Amino acid sequence: MLTEYLPTHSICSLPFVTSFCQGFGKNLYRNGKVEAAGSWLNLSAQEIQPLFTDQRAGGAARSWVKTYGCSEDAWNGGCSLVIEGLIPAATSNLTVSLFRLHLDNPPARIFLSFIYKLEGGVSLTPELMTCAPSQHQSDTSSTLEVLKPSLLPEDDAFVQQFVQSCDSWSPGGWTARFFQVEMKDCALREIQVSVAHGQENDQDAQFKCRIGEIRVLDAAKLRAELNPVENPTVSNYLWRKQPKGTDTSLSDLSLSATLQWAYPGRLASYFNIYCRGLCSHKTKEVESSETVLIGRTSANVYRAVDLKLREPPVGRCCPVEFLVQPVSEAGFPTPLSACGKVIVNCTQAQ
Questions:
Q1: Which of 7, 299, 322, 336 stands 20 to 30 A from 157 (CA)?
Q2: Domain finish residue from 218, 241, 257
Q3: pTM beyond cutoff 0.85
């Protein structure tokens, strides 16, 4: 009786960002590339999941579609969303609902970032489902209307502003598309994708789409500034020095330590942890001045383990600098120059 009044898996505010990570994976990905090879598990890294489906679409006897999480490839984290199905020749397209929303007062202009891969000669486009504000209590499928976002060119001012606010990246096999939509006197109720035939639709089209990331943002807030973390500290040091010749790594000295800091709740989606002063990282030699990403955490604490350092000369000090970078809910990182920093000095006793 209450089904239509209780939105399922609804998103109630913007920004909305998900890479479909389920908190585990066969590899850890960052911007479409493997950052750390090998299986991992961290349920605090799980992101919002879609409405999974496995059904026949549009009433056509041969038409079907299903969605599922897949760890064979990802944009960020360990998983991506795969949409698989078949569009009969007599059907122009099919739509797949991904997320329910409950935004009665959305911003006047919405910016969408959409990263995906395609197989099967089809096209993939995000769509929004809306209803009139007066119908927000009875937004059944019969009262919803499709709102098709407008594709933005790469040189559009909004796109340039968005790209400058993100980490630098190259698609590398992924397709990145950017859209905007004007919201006028309507409530936002659903995010869906439309899968359509290519130029020729005289045959059935079996397809496989992999969505890496979706961002739905207020176009007026594409460059939100975050404050640096406060009171970063380092504690629980553990120094280890391997006897010469017993370790195949590039350094005989390693450091483990716990970083902690203060930061207002719900302002940051997660924190990137960087380090300067390393000798090597993940068996790769690095310059001591190089800023190296060593990890990521969703909490205000991080344990760095077995960081490889250069052994300082006797009587001299070698600094090891940690940087904590907040990343906003919209996915925008704080510039490294404005990140919270804390330094640990490593000194060789005489």
A1: 336
A2: 218
A3: no
